[in-house]
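Support request from a user on the community tier.

User writes: "When I paste my structure tokens into the form, the page sometimes reloads and wipes my input. The last time it worked, I copied everything first. Here is what I submitted, just in case something in the input itself triggers the reload:"
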């Protein structure tokens, strides 16, 4: 195929296919260059990017956009997730490694507006499970925290010691009452996330913070506004 013909072929593909190829290429080169600096669109000042940019794609299950969460109500206005571009790069590296063994990530939560964080704190008031906004303004509020679990090729969750947002001792990383398979999967998830720059949170096996998270700014941008700012 000539170079000219190859270029014609590239530009005749759908926009989604081109975007997918573009982000896959970025992930392959290890996200050495910040994601958005290569895009034609200007980089939003908040640096929050849609979870869709993570390649290979993760499986979202956004319980906070439904009533199926500990608050009993939909605290997210839309079923979409965003995260800081640095966390998106790290998550792409995790996905690449997991893909080699037929696994991937399901993502429950990422960026959370500060006002939603406050609402959750008012309901739980237990720092093992929800950050106190009065102290550190939260972790998810910076777009550098993710709540994740492992899935197989068919999207089925691997057994873990507890369900997501199980606010009991079963959520703790040191909980030993789980089966050996559950403990193995919990460790597998922790190891791959740590290898690519995340810090495990002791009280919740599903929660990870990007290293240096404290230095990232806190946002209270509503999710709907992020859709418009893309
Ligand atoms: Zn979390």
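"...and here is what came back when it finally went through:"
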């Amino acid at each position: 195929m000539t170079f000219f013909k190859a270029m014609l072929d590239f530009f005749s593909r759908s926009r989604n296919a081109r975007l997918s190829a573009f982000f896959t290429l970025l992930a392959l080169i290890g996200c050495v260059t910040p994601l958005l600096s290569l895009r034609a669109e200007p980089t939003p000042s908040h640096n929050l990017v849609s979870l869709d940019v993570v390649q290979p794609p993760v499986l979202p299950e956004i319980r906070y956009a439904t009533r199926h969460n500990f608050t009993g109500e939909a605290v997210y206005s839309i079923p979409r997730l965003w995260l800081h571009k640095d966390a998106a790069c790290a998550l792409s590296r995790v996905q690449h490694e997991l893909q080699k063994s037929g696994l991937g990530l399901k993502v429950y939560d990422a960026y959370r507006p500060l006002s939603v964080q406050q609402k959750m704190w008012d309901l739980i008031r237990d720092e093992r499970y929800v950050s106190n906004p009065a102290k550190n303004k939260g972790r998810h509020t910076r777009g550098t925290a993710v709540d994740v679990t492992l899935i197989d090729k068919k999207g089925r969750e691997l057994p873990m010691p507890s369900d997501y947002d199980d606010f009991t001792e079963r959520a703790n990383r040191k909980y030993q009452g789980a089966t050996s398979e559950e403990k193995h999967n919990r460790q597998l998830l922790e190891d791959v996330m740590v290898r690519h720059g995340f810090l495990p949170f002791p009280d919740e096996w599903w929660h990870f913070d990007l290293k240096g998270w404290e230095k990232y700014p806190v946002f209270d941008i509503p999710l709907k506004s992020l859709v418009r700012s893309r």
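Agent notes: The reload is a front-end session timeout and is unrelated to the input. The helical segments are 3-12, 15-28, 85-99, 114-124, 133-136, 180-195, 223-229. The longest helix spans residues 180-195. Escalated to web team.
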